[in-house]
Amino acid sequence: PIKGAPGRPLTRPLATNGIIGSLYEPQSGWPDLRFALGAGFNGNGTPLMSIVDSFLGRQPDGTYSDNSLDALYAVNCLDRTDRADPQRTIELGDEWASTSPTFGRELAWSNLPCYDYPAPPTNEPRVIAADGAKEILLVGTTRDPATPYVWAKEVNDQLANSVLITFDGDGHTGYGRNGCVTNAVDKAFLSGELPSADTTCS
């Protein structure tokens, strides 16, 4: 740990969360992260602590701006039938760290709250084809740090009637961050006209 906010040292998990949060938005997050990492390497963890607090919605008085983290775990845990116990989490951390030394172990441990979540899983993962539905529009970002592009491709392959817009770019999501994507989505909602099946925006 290094010096962070008063009474709150910057630990590795907090630093990792700050890095992950910064990767969502290349325009503002990446420059802020560059500055925060420079400060951190010089023993000052305050900038990175500020980033993680902003990412998690933590206020100066220790309260949180909303319950989005609670909602995130509610959704994720109810979808998980493979809730890992602490020993399995340690094993997963080692496995994932071999693929991602920076994030693997922390991401494995981030699933542990689901182990003793007070409600059982109710939505076992399954293939969803949505047969009979009108055409469904999907957007996938090729270098999305949170929702990998391969997931968008897999869902597109599962659905019986869908169109995938590929945003060849960085950051989390494409709508509102890329004019080509935004225009295509707006057109779909406003006029019902979907783009061609192989639309790529950059």
List keywords for this structure.
202 residues, alpha/beta, two-stranded antiparallel ribbon, globular
Describe the overall structure:
- The chain is α/β, with parallel strands linked by helices.
- It folds into 3 domains: 55 residues, no CATH class; 47 residues, no CATH class; 66 residues, no CATH class.
- The protein is built from 8 helices and 5 strands; from the N terminus they run E-E-H-H-H-H-H-H-E-H-E-H-E.
- The strands form 2 sheets. Strands 3-4-5 form a 3-stranded parallel β-sheet, with helices on both faces.
- Helix 2 packs antiparallel against helix 3.
- The longest helix has 14 residues.
Radius of gyration, taken over Cα atoms and rounded to an integer in Å:
20 Å
Q: Strand tally, please? A: 5
Largest sheet: 3 strands, parallel
Average pLDDT, to the nearest integer? 93
| End-to-end distance | 39 Å
Q: Into which percentage range does the β-strand content fall?
A: 5-15%
- Specify the helix fraction band: 40-55%
Specify the overall morphology.
globular
Which series of helices and strands comes N to C?
A: EEHHHHHHEHEHE
DSSP helical segment count: 8
Strand order of the largest sheet: 3-4-5
Residue windows where pLDDT falls under 50 for at least 5 positions: none
